[in-house]
Amino acid sequence: MTQHNRQVHLAAHFPGVNNTTIWSDPDSGSHIEFSSFEHLARTAERGFFDFFFLAEGLRLREHKGKIFDLDVAGRPNTLAVLSALAGVTDNIGLAGTLSTTYNEPFELARQLATLDHLSGGRAAWNVVTSPDAFTGENFRRGGYLEYADRYHRAEDFIHLSRRFWDADPSEIVEHISPFFEVGTRFPVPTPPQGHPVVLQAGDSDQGREFAAGSADVIFTRHGSLEEGTAFYRDVKRRLAAYGRGEDDLKIFPGVTVVLGDSEADARERAAEIHRQQVSGPGAIAFLEQVWGRDLTGYDPDGPLPTVEPDTDGASITRGRVRHVRDPRVVADHWRSLAQERNLSIRELVIEVSARTSFVGTHGAVAGQLSEFVQQRAADGFILVPSVTPGGLDEFVERVVPELQDRGVYRSDYPGITLRENLGLPPHRPAAQWARYRHTDSKVSALS
Ligand SMILES: Cc1cc2nc3c(=O)[nH]c(=O)nc-3n(C[C@H](O)[C@H](O)[C@H](O)COP(=O)(O)O)c2cc1C
Which residues pair with 96 in a beta bridge? Predict the structure, then answer.
C-alpha cells in the first residue's frame, strides 16, 4: 500500500478505424454494430471510467488514390452512437470528436445539449479542427479555412455554443464575428451540466493555448513520463492567464496496456501485438506517407530506403490525422534510428508508431499508471485497446481492483454528471470565459 493520494482517472477509446485494433484476431468484432459500442461502454462503466470516447474522421482515408483498407474503412455517425449509448448506460460520460471547421455552432450546440439531456449530464465534446481541404470537399468547402485560423474559428465556435447553452429560451442570441453571423433563440433548455465537458486534441503551441483558454480536458499523445511531465507543466502554467486553477483542466494521454501473468509474458504479448498491428504492407504504406512516393518495391524486413522523400508532390495519403511537416528531417531521423538499432523497415515502424504502452502484470501496470499521476505526468488516461470490443475486459477485471487496493481509484461514481466525476469545477458561463478571450486574434481568412 502506498501513501499516494492523487486519484487516477480513466477513459475508454473505442479503437475503430486505425491499425491499433488487430482485425485479424479471432476475438475482433464489428466496428459498426451497436453491440460493439455497447460492450466497450458497459465494460468501462463497470470499471467506473469517466468517459467512453469516439474519434472521428469525416472522409474515408485514401492512399495512392485508393481507399485505404489495410485496417478498416468507414464508421457511423458519432452523435447517433453516443445517443444510443445514453440509453444503455447510467454513469459513464459520452465523449464525441466533432469538428469546429465543418460544423455550425447552432446545430452542433443543439445536438450536444440534446445528448446532455438524454444522458442526464454525461455529454462531452472533443473539439478538433482538422481543417484539411480533402475533408472540406465533403462539405463543398475544400480549403476555405486558413490553417492559421483553425483555432480562431474553434474559439469563436465554442464561445457561441456556450452562449447558446446559457441562453434563456426567450433570449435572442446575437453574435457577429468574422466566422459567424447569428441572431436567434436557442431551442434546447440549458443542459444538465450547464455546458457539456469540452476536450481538446491538438498538439501545437496554439492548440495548447486554446486548451488553456477554452477546454476542460486535453487528449494528448505525450505519454512517456519525461514528455508527460514537461507537457503537463507547460499546459498547467498557461491556466492562470485565463483566471483558471491547476485542477480546472485535466490531462489525459492516450495509452495502451498489455497485461501478462509475468513480466516476460507481458513483454512477449506486447511484441506479438505490435507485429500484428504493423503488417509488412502496413509498414510500407506508413513509410510512403512520409516519403511521398511509391515504395512497394522495398522489402519490409529489409533496410530503409536510401532514396530521398519526394517533397514536391501532394501527399499521397489523404484523410489521416498526421502532420509530417518536414519529410526529409523525419526520414533522416528514422534512418539513423534504424542504423543505430539495426532495425528493418517493419521494426522501425513498430518503434515509431507505437503509443505509450504500460506493459506488465496487472499489479505492475497499476503501479505504473499511479506513478504517472503521482508524478504529475497525467491526471488520467484514455485507454486504447488492441481488440474491439473486448479489449478492456481484462483491464477492468484485473487492474481496476489493484488501483483500488492502492487507494488511488474509486469504487463508485462520486457524482451524477461527467463534470462532477472528473472533479471539474461547476461550469463557468460564457460571459466569464469571454473576459479572457484574446481580442487581437488576426483572422487571415477574412481580412
Ligand atoms: C491525441 C489526438 C487525437 C486526435 N483525434 C482526432 C480525431 O479523432 N479526428 C480528427 O479529425 N482530428 C483529430 N486530431 C487532430 C487535431 O484535432 C487537430 O486538428 C490537429 O492535430 C491540428 O491541431 P494542432 O495543429 O494543434 O496539432 C487529434 C489530435 C490529437 C493530438
Answer: 54, 125
